[in-house]
């Protein structure tokens, strides 16, 4: 089959740092035929390593040049551009979070179904080799029935001081919708994608709204800071499983932490690093593996899966229906924090 023609919409940080380098590596399978950015200079700069892709500031012009697009704009435009692409018959890999809210996510799924095109969300933590191995072990019932997930996704004083990450209108929120959502997705997937039924959440921005705070990732304007920088939540699922969740851009902790832990009835799996404990012979055994096969670049794994899925040769590693469940929980945490009580989904 000929190479998949891929367009980039939104050619800033993540497009240039992750997706375009990976597409160069996969150039035998995919060709970058269009690059779009409202800032045309950004699109031109992103195009330098490729053989003269079509450059435009208008995303509507991309679709006639492409079989698939990667949407890397601020969150506010994810749904609008995904739906336009799908309606034009083009497959979509959309950056995370899926959308600004679950209603938009639902409309994206409906458009994908109607057009019979692929829609994948770039929750790339699933593509890490340790996460793939953890999922395999859980699916093979090596920890029994997964019951409780714990997430701590903590950055020590690292509020993004660039781009639009702290712009509520463009992004919909802060640490939860930007960073925590990856770990929400990962833990739901490892739990076996149960349906969330009740959410209790709290959001904070105390630290970032105080004057003269030190920050490792650039300057934060405490007077205009309007999104969450720290979030806690308790999520109950229809099968009785629960998730204890904490994420932060600005925690007062010794060091950054990305920890997902799944307890089952006969064992437990921890990420990152990958560790396994199994109850056997009346003992709790350390079953940690000596070698985890797979590549070191989850962006490459993710893109390969998307290309294969577009060709009809693989299932999507992040189906949109599962990303929508993350969105529902994110919405519910924000709602619960605002109302000061738990929210039923
Ligand atoms: N998967 C990850 O780990 C990860 C990491 C960083 C960012 N992201 C996601 O990627 C997206 C972009 O983030 P970024 O860091 O690249 O931001 P960025 O600001 O560096 O780039 C966004 C680009 O989109 C362009 N743009 C804005 N509106 C547009 C429109 N309507 N049409 C075309 N171009 C438009 C901007 O000019 C900008 O160049 C966000 O949704 C973010 O959540 C994901």
UniProtKB/TrEMBL annotation:
Gene Ontology molecular-function annotations: nucleotide binding
Highest taxon listed in the record's lineage: Bacteria
Domain spans labelled Gfo/Idh/MocA-like oxidoreductase N-terminal: 4-123
InterPro entries referenced in this protein's UniProt entry, alphabetically: Gfo/Idh/MocA-like_OxRdtase_C, Gfo/Idh/MocA-like_OxRdtase_N, Gfo/Idh/MocA_Oxidoreductase, NAD(P)-bd_dom_sf
Pfam families in the cross-refs: GFO_IDH_MocA, GFO_IDH_MocA_C
Domain Gfo/Idh/MocA-like oxidoreductase C-terminal span(s) in chain numbering: 135-345
Gene3D superfamilies per the UniProt record, alphabetical: Dihydrodipicolinate Reductase, domain 2, NAD(P)-binding Rossmann-like Domain
Similarity comment: family membership: Belongs to the Gfo/Idh/MocA family.
Protein name: Predicted dehydrogenase
Organism listed in the record: Alkalicoccus daliensis
Lineage of the species this protein comes from: Bacteria, Bacillati, Bacillota, Bacilli, Bacillales
